[in-house]
Write a structure and sequence with these properties.
125 residues; mainly beta; OB fold (Dihydrolipoamide Acetyltransferase, E2P); 1 helix; 7 strands; 8% helix
């Protein structure tokens, strides 16, 4: 039976409502990602959910090559968010080969395989 009360459920529920929330420790004040019940910085258990700014920069990127009939190429990136956390995602709206390290990006809640996920697009210049 899936956990319907834990941090993963909280994160996914927010995404289903088109909200990108991040866990923030009430004890030390630092954000963390991935969602968990203990702060990885101070081991505090007082965790709140805060709206993410959505702003970040591409830390690293790679292109996954696929045949066109299997959906074509796509990128996989690590994004450093302004809140000080790093997460894996994709940059949409541009060719996978055009995604560059240190590119400014902005998050949005999209969908992958029928599930809401955090995706990114290039920030406006």
């Amino acid at each position: 039976m899936p956990d319907v009360t834990g941090p993963d459920h909280s994160f996914q529920s927010a995404l289903a409502d088109k909200e990108f929330l991040l866990p923030k420790c009430d004890d030390c004040g630092l954000f963390h990602f991935f969602p968990r019940i203990l702060c990885p910085h101070c081991h505090g258990t007082a965790i709140s959910w805060k709206q993410a700014s959505g702003r970040g920069r591409v830390y690293t990127t790679t292109v996954v090559r696929r045949k066109p009939e299997r959906g074509g190429d796509y990128n996989v990136c690590m994004i450093d968010l302004d809140e000080g956390v790093r997460m894996m995602s994709r940059v949409e709206g541009i060719a996978p080969d055009d995604v560059a390290i240190d590119m400014a990006v902005i998050a949005f809640v999209g969908e992958a395989e029928g599930v809401p996920v955090v995706l990114f697009k290039p920030a406006e210049a």
